[in-house]
Amino acid sequence: MFNRRVLSSHRDVFDLEVKRGGDGSHTMRGLWWPVAHQLLKQAATVTLPRRFLPEARRRFYKNVTVAGNGGIYEVNLDLHKLKTPKGHTLQIPNYGLALAVAQEWAVTKDKIVPSLMHLTGLSYTVIDNPNHETKWDTVHKTLEYLDTDTLLFREDQGEELNTLQAKEWGPILEWFNKKFDADIKPCPGLFGADIPDPVRETIRRYLLSYDMWAVNGFLYGVEALKSVILTIAAAERKITAEKASFLSRLELEYQTSRWGSVEWAHDLDKQEVLARFSAALLFIHFNTWQATTKHKSK
Amino acid sequence: MAAVTPKIQTLRCLIREMRRSLLPHENVRHSPAFVYMMKEYRRNAVTDQQYCRQQEEMAYLAHTCATYLEASRRYQELHQEYHCRGERTVKETADIVGFKLPNEH
């Protein structure tokens, strides 16, 4: 019955008449998927890749070099310039960062997995700006994590974890409060912390003082650790990257130290968080670090 | 004085990580990353006894670099070890429960 039907419009697909044994037709509303899918594919004007899990590209280059001078450095894979997904050439303002990006490409042995190249991905995001975000937008997104900052949620049942949290997280929170002239306390319960507006604005001003590159690094770091306080502490070099990622996963570490850890899950997760956060930190520091040389007078 | 880890140790870590990334015929001393790193270290070559802000910055940066390289390498190794086997073939699955495939008779 349905073979003869010519589906020339969306309406045909939406309002199908199903004849039920002589009683008259009963209109079946709703998208009939086996056929609608074909129609939607034909109507699609944008060509999407058919396979969503393509085979990873293999390493096609032998050497990775960094070229450039002044404020612009480019990464070359064997005479082929590295380009962002949108097609712009990857131009990095800092030599150290360009070397680090080149290192990421040099480390790949056989398959190129872009999701593991954090610095390259971050550079692509800043240059391409696919979501057309301004610096203010990115800082706003980062600050949204402040309400549910990891350091503010303490254990309320069970003494041991609570004391551990107070011991490890307390000093960082104190430092943060002193730096931003705030009085943020750990919040009980499920709802977010109540951060007063002046404090939020102070932190926003602090983040806005970094340039667009570093601000993207901040967002990446905050998303890795789910904590604005820890990211800012690490950016100010008060704690190392390992310590920051350890503090962010404090409860998990406590539980695994008690119940045992599973290598293929816990260790993998630990290394991933650490890799992401240290990449974010590198991105921040390379883009804010300014070297000045003072020569001895001869 | 406020050095988090001794700088020589971080330097050794960084060189070790860099050496892993090279193809076998290359020498780590010729790679631009190594050259840059040694230049930066020598430029800030003040002893550990004295506190110098720029030196602190560079030491922290070197430490973060070493952390990043090590963490991404370990992640790849763990992933390779535990999650890269792909699916079992039909024969393997049958062998687990002791069945024989139809064509085998």
TrEMBL record, chain B:
GO terms for cellular component: mitochondrion. Belongs to the FMC1 family. This is Protein FMC1 homolog. It comes from Scylla paramamosain.
